[in-house]
Amino acid sequence: MEIFLDTANIEQIRQGAKLGVVSGVTTNPSLMAKEDTADYEAVVKEICTIIPGPVSAEVVVEGTEAMIEEARKIAAWAPNVVVKIPATAEGLEVTSALAKETIKVNFTLCFSLNQALLGALAGAAFVSPFVGRLDDAGHDGMELVEDIVDTFEYYQLPAKVIAASIRHPQHCLAAAKAGADIATVPYKVLTQMIQHPLTDVGVARFLSDWQSISKRKGK
Ligand code: E4P
User: Fold this and answer.
1) For ligand 1, is residue 28 a contact (CB within 6 Å)?
2) How far apart (Å, rounded) are the C-alpha atoms in residues 78 and 45?
């Protein structure tokens, strides 16, 4: 399973890139609103220079024609930009029009297998089930990821499954076990994924034992 960062924060993306495990980024208008800039285009372009893999940027207009027009503009920002289109009837029409132009779409805000299936059939390169938001609403978000993975495999649909709206490391574990192609994670979750108290204890003990050997050598 690949790891994408779910943020529009340049510093977090630079830090994540240094770890060598981040192969893409997803942004959205709410993540962008947290940053101290109004220039979405500049932010996305900068992210695309830091991470060479897929960088998702969301279309934020309504109406099929307007969405297609904005998607074309976003797709021209960088070769690795992927356009996020919401899982609505309009979004479906837009996705299939963009797929014909070979513009990569991330079919986002997916909350059901039907939405994911239609997005894949329309030619989306990625579909994003929102695990955390489903959990919040009293459903089992990861069950949806499992269903989408199984269905895409059964029908040999090429769309990649991004487990999105990830809230904690346990979600990452479950997404990997479910066979998600990608988990897009907040920076905090990425840092939590590597942490283990027994590793910290082990490192501290090895260091102190090594110091006692060094002192012996000095005798
Ligand atoms: C995915 O592409 C979205 O940006 C994201 O995962 C949404 O997560 P949230 O439910 O934490 O806002």
Assistant:
1) yes
2) 6
Angle at 85 between CA 84 and CA 86, to 5 degrees: 120
Between CA 139 and CA 137 the distance in angstroms is 6
Give residues with Cβ within 8 angstroms of 120, minimum separation 6.
Answer: 107, 127, 152, 157, 158, 159
Q: Given a cut of 90, is residue 200 above it in pLDDT?
A: yes
Q: What share of the chain is helix, strand, coil (3-state, %, to 5)?
A: 55, 20, 25
Share of the chain above pLDDT 70, in %: 99
Tokens of 76: 């021209």
Residue 84 annotated among the catalytic residues of the structure: yes
pLDDT for position 38: 87
Q: What is the mean pLDDT of residues 154-183?
A: 98
Q: Is the CB of 7 under 6 A from ligand 1?
A: no
> Nearest C-alpha to atom 8 of ligand 1 is from which residue?
165
Residue 204 token pair: 């501290």
Amino acid (one-letter) located at 63: G
As a whole number, the mean pLDDT across the chain is 97
Residue 208 alpha carbon to ligand 1 centre in Å: 42
Among 84, 104, 160, 219, the active-site one is 84
User: What pLDDT score does 219 carry?
Assistant: 61
Task: For residue 110, count CB atoms less than 10 angstroms from its CB and return exposed for 0-12, middle for 13-18, buried for 19 or more.
Answer: buried
